[in-house]
Amino acid sequence: MTLETPADVREVRVDLGERGYRVRIGPGVRHTLPAVLARLGVRRAAVVTARPPEWTPDPGVPALVVPARDGEEGKTLAWVAELCGRFARYGLTRADAVVAVGGGTTTDAAGLAAALYHRGLPVVHLPTTLLAQVDASVGGKTAVNLPEGKNLVGAYWQPAEVLCDTDYLATLPDREHANGYGEIARCHFIGAPGLLGLPVADQIAASVALKASIVAADERDQGRRHLLNYGHTLGHALEHATGHRIRHGEGVAIGTVFAGRLALALGRIGADRAAEHRDVVAAFGLPTRLPAGPSPAELIGFMRADKKRLGDGLAFVLDGPAGAELVTGVSEDAVAAVLRAMPRAEPA
User: Fold this and answer.
1) Which residue range or ranges hold the 3-dehydroquinate synthase C-terminal domain (predicted)?
2) Residue 149: its pLDDT value, please?
3) pLDDT at 21
């Protein structure tokens, strides 16, 4: 079965051979879910949804509907185990599929449950936030958090299809909509400049196309895929240190500004390029200052748990003469000095 692509729907291919898939971006694409599942030959589905019934599409096959625990506090191994138990009680088999409808925490947790249950069921993602549409739903990374850090337990499990319905974006609160621009802003420094001012569907498509090209070249983070972590090392630390008061996209935005300052301190870029980091983030309406509260020592403690770290010192993706690249062995003293010099937001 083939699906026609209307003129107002963008389509990006993640080229991974037999594991390759389409990302379709545009208004109303959620309604193509029955055709997607029919193409996969699915008999039944488990729909893990963070959205109300009127925004959860009919899968076109008998389905178990499970209300999601959308939010970082729901990204736990206990929730993944509960999902797998519900799949088992419903009688889901390898001839069936999982559908995730919600933000990045929903696609992460449901995607990990799909990867683990029966050693892998097809999963179709319907990301409903801007953040999830530009990043979390694409690339096959699924993970949950531990008290010790973010996304420390997970698996690579590529979706069978991703449906980025832009109609969902009109339902988002202002802060959640702005949150998604953190991932878009950092694209400026890893291969997709010039996204500011484009229609949102074009911003999503360009961000997804960049990620798709990187994932196709390095599916399992052995090299180039590290670029996608630009701004994330400090971003993840800020999320944890503030009890997720700082949201993911906001953390990545602040982390991007920090990455420019750290690259300047290490002599990798000049002052103008470092300032460009702040200017781009600010132009997207995102925070550029560290929040009040977490100390440099506390933030560095969380950075020590970062998955990119190899050997002594800390690891960051930083801009440089040849563009962004993974830099390892960065001294904690250098990081602390840059953190101390960054402006802080006023206490709330």
Assistant:
1) 201-308
2) 80
3) 97
**Tokens 């010790």, located at residue:** 148
For residues 206 and 245, membership in a common domain is answered with: no
- Give dist(CA 254, CA 259) in Å, integer: 9
- Banded model confidence at residue 221, pLDDT cuts 50, 70, 90: confident
The answer to whether residue 177 is domain-embedded is no
**Buried-state track 117-155, b at ≥16 Cβ within 10 A, e below 16:** beeebbbbbbbbbbbbbbbbbbbbbbbbbeeebbbeebe
Please state the pTM of the whole predicted model: 0.91
Q: Quick check: is 185 in a domain?
A: no
Phi, psi for 59 (deg, rounded to 5): -75, -10
**Does residue 212 sit in the same domain as residue 252?**
no
For residue 48, give the CATH number of its domain: 3.40.50.1970
* Domain edge (last residue) among 182, 217, 252: 217
Do 211 and 239 fall within a single domain? Answer: no
pLDDT of 1: 35
Q: Is residue 24 classed as helix, strand or coil in its secondary structure?
A: strand
For residue 303, give its domain range. Answer: 230-341
CA distances from 313 to 300, 304, 306, 308 (A): 10, 8, 11, 11
Kindly write down the DSSP assignment for every residue of 48-71, as one continuous string: EESS-GGGS---SS-EEEEE---S
Backbone angles phi, psi at 314, to 5 degrees: -110, 165
